[in-house]
Amino acid sequence: MDINLEGRVNNISLHPSKALSPLFEAISNSIHAIEDRNINNGYIDIQIKREVNQTGLIDDGNFSPIDSFIIIDNGVGFDSNNLKSFYTSDSLYKKSRGSKGIGRLLWLKAFTDVFIESIYENEGGLHKRNLEFNFQNNGVKQISDIRLYDEDIDIYTKIEFKNFLSPYRGQCPQKIETIGKKIIEHYISYFVLEKVPKIRLVDGKDEFDINNYFDDNLEPFTDENVVKIKGHDFHIKSIKYYDYSDSNHKLYYCANNRTVFFKQLHNFIPDLVGSQKIEDSDSSKKFTYLAFVRSTFFDENVNQGRTGFNNIIDKHEGFTEQLGLLTNKEIEESLVDSVYNNLHPFLENIKEAKEKEIQDYIMRNALEYRPLLKYARKQLDSIKPGLSHKKLDLELHKIKSELELSLKKQGQEILNTPLENFDKYPEYRQQYHSFLEKYNDLGINKLAEYVVHRKIIIELFSKNLERDDRDRYSLESDIHEIVFPMRATSDEINSFEKQNLWLIDERLSYHHYLASDKPLGQLPNFTDNSSSRPDILIFNNPIVFVEDERPPYSSVTIVEFKRPMRKNYDDNQENPISQVASYISQIRENTYTDKNGKLIRVRETTPFYVFVICDLTKKIRYILEDVVGYTKMPDDDGYFNFNRNSNAYIEVLSFDKVVRDAKLRNSILFKKLGI
Q: Is the pTM of the predicted complex or chain greater than 0.90?
């Protein structure tokens, strides 16, 4: 079968961000060649050639673009075996080393020409071979192959990549240090797991010794750990990388001493923060933790693209346990457990600080999560350290919801468990008491959550009674919204926590129907088109013990707010007393239905309870005392009166009294919670 080289290369995908991949493939070949020669003084020199010869920066402060690379090694060279493999597309010559036989095809993906010069040994003598590799002649062209008689010449191979192509040229790192670090990161498993040759980068007069950099900035973390999983040994070797530009701690899966893929450890170990290095207790320096796993099982099962492993399944599917097959999850969990044991001493301080942070937040800001400190310790351990209060609250809410769901399921199981015999009773009783303890604690904290809500509402209400930065008081609507949402009815606001009528009187929260800031003429089937709009109109529960087919409502409540520190009332129609009297008259004279079409009946004997909430200015006190003759309350912060003609009991309360009385009614709850 003939292979069209250009078509084969075009079908290979190489992202521009992988511009150094052709260089990495050449370095891999050099490492293998040195291993095959079995020498201790192996070296790989990499020369960087730019468009403009330089030893540093060109005039505008930028690096001149890289045009070519030259890689020189003293491995076995292009002997007959290597030459035959080079001529063969998708060669299997280095299959045992994990090679897929396509690495050199990447060279022509990023460069127009590759020139190879090699001195190798053949039948006891030295030979020199020169090759060209490009799309001409459909691939490899041998320029020369001659016998050498100079015994002082050393074996070597030089590969020169010419004419770096776009877009790879533009994406290639320019600094020699950056390229050197990229080489270490790509071959770090070689450095950690095996002895590597001397690798040096040269850019004009600048040099970067990769081995020295590795020795200076990386050190072993622990002795090698061995994890056994279903008869397979997995060897874990860890290092501290002090000068690593990436702060993400990783677990590398390796085959044939090369990385296949890695996993971010912060996804499995919560106290590891992806963007935060670990502080070394010995030197106070900070390092990135890298762990490398190798195994004969990985070597034998790495897939062709070196992106994963064959013969590993995602999850057990019944028969897999009996067959002894490995799953991704059990490999992952076993390896992560071993890594966590290594890191545990370094993470203790982080974990303790996180636990204190969570406890402080709960005790100071979110008492509703207090049961989690007792019943969800393991789940709290899964929270990342250093979260903002907003994100921490979200995580705590998730854990609390999961705990409540689990508790609900447990309660259903316990209640549905039949007591078949007396022997089971002690076990059932123990489960029941454990469940009851958790259930009660969560219930208490739901109450605590609501008490904290009340504390906040009282403070918010008080805040709205003060003047703002522009020396203005809040509007009547601002006060109204805190007590009950405006332009809404109780049919629309059906959550107990969304209304705060308890600020005025606890009994107001328990009603049959409420309209907030709704014109009387817009209430269902109201017979008059009145535009009068009580702030809050409440119909209390119907009277039960009457013979009427449609029983009347037991009472009607009206709440009227006035803007804090309002002073402009007149003696007749504009004052709140005249206003509520008009509301009562209109309501008694009309009939209308509720949402179910049932007639709302207000008899002449139906009592009205009215609350007027305002500041007791000099003007309003004059109206109450001298015009309408109300009685002052003992604390001098309110007035009351009973109007026999309208059967209405009316209280006029100052804002200060409303706040003070609300605090007094709730004070015992606040004290119990320590707030």
A: no
